[in-house]
Design brief:
Oligomer: homodimer
CATH superfamily of chain A: Farnesyl Diphosphate Synthase
Strand order of the largest sheet of chain A: 1-2
Order of helices and strands of chain A: HHHHEEHHHHHHHHHHH
Number of domains of chain A: 1
Structural class of chain A: mainly alpha
CATH architecture of chain A: Orthogonal Bundle
Distance between the termini of chain A: 19 Å
Chain lengths: 298, 298
């Protein structure tokens, strides 16, 4: 049931992204940087689970938000997520050759194209949200641009990645790890859950609740990731594993042990369930998402 | 008189950018990626002429736009311009060690930090425009986000940079050069001139006129740049081909000669003057900007 929902949204997101990045798309200028566009497609149209768009779509549905608007904001968020993967994979960053079993963008194309493809996907995310084709009230549109910029920039994902690079030289303490992860992986997941009530024009209290829900999901996501990194092999993950610990990066699992992490995951899911209890049965799919994030195997 | 105006705006832009990027600035999270912020400051607080913010400020003034809003949109545009310089300077791109006599960001810091600093400056540009501190009507705010994203992305600056990389392998013809330059350097200058009427809520016709003015400025800027590249290298290296030509990049100056380029510059300035004639004496400073761009010596 939950899996059907997730797969269904992934199919619709894939179709929309394919349309947005189609080679024949009018982009306002005569010349077409075809190779750059091909690199963007390689980065985005890769069969991902589309978890972030799914959270946008489901959190918007909870408050009766426009479905088309939610799907397009979800697609924008996915572009932004994919930009971060392309830049993280660069030789100067994590230096990864494979992602989901495919060559990363700088391997399939070249490093300069990978830098520009990431830049263009980041920019495209804001274009999608600002475009009139995305049916949003002006106030909601501005709120989404601001929230997305804050989630992605210095105080969010990019800042978290910078702290992560620093962590390779000096391992952070527990509080440092929590903050780093809240920025690096948490910020976009918080945005995904918060975006729904913003799209729907829901009350500020609902926005705060969904933001807290996103916070819990983000922490569960990272813990599950760290546990997988510890236990799974490269075949399951489609990327190199055991790498974070090997580089001396601190993780909460490394610091506090596997048993603690598994108990903490249960606690996070329970807290997420409790948080959405006031919304009753309508919140079932979002609660399913929390369980999915905590129990995922790749 | 014009120089005073330009210097005056540069001083105010520098003060605002210093404030926006101050180390103590609250960025919404506990941890502070200080090194990343330092790299952003290195990229932005470099004593540039701030031509793009100047064009925003003057084009807004022409239509009675809010001065503070114009200055902040100008600062956002400068952050975006500086992001493009940081990424262009990377080893995988133009591989430049020096900019304005200072080490480039990847030299002063490291390559990973330079990539993230560029990413964060690009993101910060959208944050500044979307932030409530920038006094804009919601409609104008959305229009600016959309126009800036289009000027910066696949169909604008980043796309132009991709075409420029391709031009090193296969020299484009005249039409190809014109398109490449309209995207790579023209798009942000067009945005700068168009932003003023948008900030002021001026009529669509005024927006179109200022966009055309920006188009002319952009072409003049690039021609002046190519002429400088030619003469600067000729002086130091005793040969008639500059750095771009030496790399196999086509320029209009290389294709059509120095005499043509100098006449074309005059023609572009005349066209700019004529375009703004209906605005009378109020447009004097913007016309001064067109002359400045055409005649600049560095």
């Amino acid at each position: 049931m939950f899996d059907d929902h997730l797969r269904d949204t992934a199919t619709r997101v894939q179709a929309l992204l394919t349309d947005l990045l189609q080679p024949a798309a009018q982009i306002g200028e005569v010349a077409r940087p075809e190779r750059l566009l091909a690199a963007m497609r390689h980065a985005v149209l890769n069969g991902g689970k589309r978890l972030r768009p799914f959270l946008v779509v489901e959190s918007a549905w909870l408050f009766g938000g426009d479905k088309d608007a939610a799907l397009r904001v979800g697609a924008a968020l996915e572009c932004l997520h994919c930009y971060s993967l392309v830049h993280d994979d660069l030789p100067a960053m994590d230096d990864d050759d494979l992602r989901r079993g495919q060559p990363t963008v700088h391997i399939a194309f070249d490093e300069a194209t990978a830098i520009l493809a990431g830049d263009s996907l980041l920019t495209f995310a804001f274009e999608i949200i600002a475009a009139p084709q995305t049916p949003l009230a002006d106030g909601a549109r501005t709120a989404l641009v601001l929230a997305l910029a804050r989630a992605a920039g210095l105080g969010g994902m990019a800042g978290g990645q910078a702290l992560d690079l620093a962590a390779e030289k000096q391992a952070p303490d527990e509080a440092g790890i929590v903050t780093l992860q809240a920025m690096k992986t948490g910020a976009l997941l918080r945005f995904a859950c918060e975006a729904g009530p913003v799209i729907a024009g829901a009350a500020e209290g609902d926005r705060q609740t969904l933001r807290q829900f996103g916070e819990l999901i983000g922490r569960a996501f990272q813990l599950a990731d760290d546990l997988l990194d510890l236990t799974a092999d490269a075949a399951t993950m489609g990327k190199a594993t055991g790498k974070d610990a090997g580089r001396g990066k601190g993780t909460l699992v490394g610091l506090k042990g596997q048993a603690w992490a598994e108990a903490e995951l249960d606690r996070l899911v329970d807290a997420a369930v409790e948080l959405l209890a006031p919304y009753g049965a309508r919140a079932e799919t979002l609660i399913g998402a929390a369980r999915f994030v905590a129990n995922r195997k790749n």
